[in-house]
């Protein structure tokens, strides 16, 4: 096969769904080519047909869906030889639309694999993760699936120990390859015992188990934090280079596309409207839809976002002409007639095509919508909200006896937060999932009252108010929830939803007519204020789009005329175009009604655009606060640096080689780490004065210490791996106390590979500290955990011993490397300089 020949291609692919309303043309004549070793990004708004296109290539469309036309070709000489002579085999290629189910089973999970969007719903909760990986290996690499007979059922039950040993070894290898620590022990755990990022790694392991030619990644990072997203993208990129895969990457995050893809196909209403190299698409978008999508992205250079007006059309009975014409700012009469041709753009040797009648269009007049610019702050100097030492703990005890005995420690969701919010400002509250952002938002409003601390709003201590007084205060404090579908009552119309808070708080709007009429008119005014058509007054939530539902949630929060709103991830579930609409709306409402926001988000691009100041949370604590521009220009806390480093940049020419990939997940809030909670993941953790190690080596040693303290090293698995290297047979049913004796050098070598990825004992950078690591290895070989801990005590950091304080300056950061008082002296034992700083240059 020539290098330019496609591994996977579709020709005039059409996938239709027959419904009571008519035929939904979800995919309507799609031509794509995925070449060997490349990554093709498939982008577009929700409802454009991206996921249906991917499922169609693998024959995974169920009734009432059907492949109505077109062909899907997969290049695979091995499968072509296996099914040689069949009508769907053409040379070294298979036509998957004509292939029977038996052939498609050989393709799925073997030649082609898919990573699905939500790992929690894609993994079987009742089966261990190791078995879920092994299932794919048995099917495609170790004998295949036999016919369903009683004899074969017995054979499956009593598989040879040799086959199972090979499957087990391959399972451990792929889990290790995708970054699952101690694969021998974790393979026996269930999905609920893994974090979100680790579950996504398991899905990747299942997809890659059989070394596919083509990997389809369907929104693999959408539900993940920016730090975990960076880990997963880096992992997919490394595995693609190692295995030589071709990747079809489906996403609506254009920043991810810019950083990961070689070419981009832009999809709208079931069609590919533009396709070309990633640099061409971002540098010279030639279809109005592509251009308007890129203009919707929040960036530091744009004062006000320019959203795409309207929504993706209903794919039933689509009219002739360009499907984007009803939303296109440049549409002319010819756009509504006949089939729109593809035009070549850019140099002749570059495959950059666009389905538009225009060779170019004037963008000068685009983006001139009136409204409030994000840079136009409405902040005053008056303090509206003050949070002092706020804590929110959740009791884990079951029943009164557990509570009395106090056996179960509480979940420390929010663990001592101090914040100030000024009238008219937007304070961004950011951090990974599990850091306590949403809990802090609810606790501030006393929707879930704090366990300890004070919240003072407009001079009133909310904790000291009676229920009646607090209820009255709620007219000044409201919340916009993350998921509008789950926060709206599905049995209530839009009008009833907006009238309800008026009834609850006994609000009588001004105007003429009966109270009922005046409340209805108030609801209509709210709908108009948030950009909803009054004709939608009697509609139910399921009849609205995601953006419209979020507008209803905003209107409901505004119904009681509040001063202060906590917006909890209000745009995280929205497409970039709808997200831009909602962000502009929030800015306009802030100007019109004098609102103050706490804006909770994990998308730092959005926060940078909308917030005046930013507070960064980690594991229940605020670790840094600063003006937005200052925080992004000069982040001081290592956690903030890692967060900002992980943000995808919507520019394929940007240099991201120095990106910090933050390892691991947020620790358990039931038992947070001592000292600085971030020290277990921090790349800048401070070594003792007598330990002269570079950052990378010291971080590796700290990870080793943490795993020894957590007893999270599978010593039996290490012994088994060492024994296999000696050629010693290992009984698969051997228990942990069966006492497998192995060569110490091989035991140490396996530990080195699993803990450090290098031979730490022979690392010249370790110097005199090597003896402490060797002593820890000796203790572990004897199963002496306490002895290993003692051997490694010399590496203890000040970051473990002492909890850094946030401080009170204009840009405080709770880190031992940061001191707001340059003249202050610091205890010489903490490894810091007398000026409170510390050299950041790696040794």
Can you describe this structure?
Strand 10 (263-268) and strand 11 (271-277) form a beta hairpin. Helix content is 34%, strand content 17%. The chain contains 30 helices and 23 strands. The strands form 4 sheets. An 8-stranded mixed sheet has the order 7-8-9-3-10-11-13-12, with helices on both faces. Strands 19-20-21-16-22-23 form a 6-stranded mixed sheet, sandwiched between helices. A 5-stranded antiparallel sheet has the order 2-1-4-6-5. The chain has 843 residues and is an alpha/beta fold.
* Secondary structure tally: strands: 23
User: What portion of the residues fall into strands of 2 or more residues?
Assistant: 15-25%
Give the low-confidence spans: 145-161, 732-738, 821-843
Radius of gyration computed on alpha carbons: 29 Å
State the helical fraction: 25-40%
Give the N-to-C terminal Cα separation: 49 Å
Largest sheet: 8 strands, mixed
User: What's the arrangement of strands in the largest beta sheet?
Assistant: 7-8-9-3-10-11-13-12
Number of helices: 30
Secondary structure category:
alpha/beta
The average pLDDT value, as a whole number, equals: 85
- Overall shape: globular
Oligomeric nature of the chains = single chain
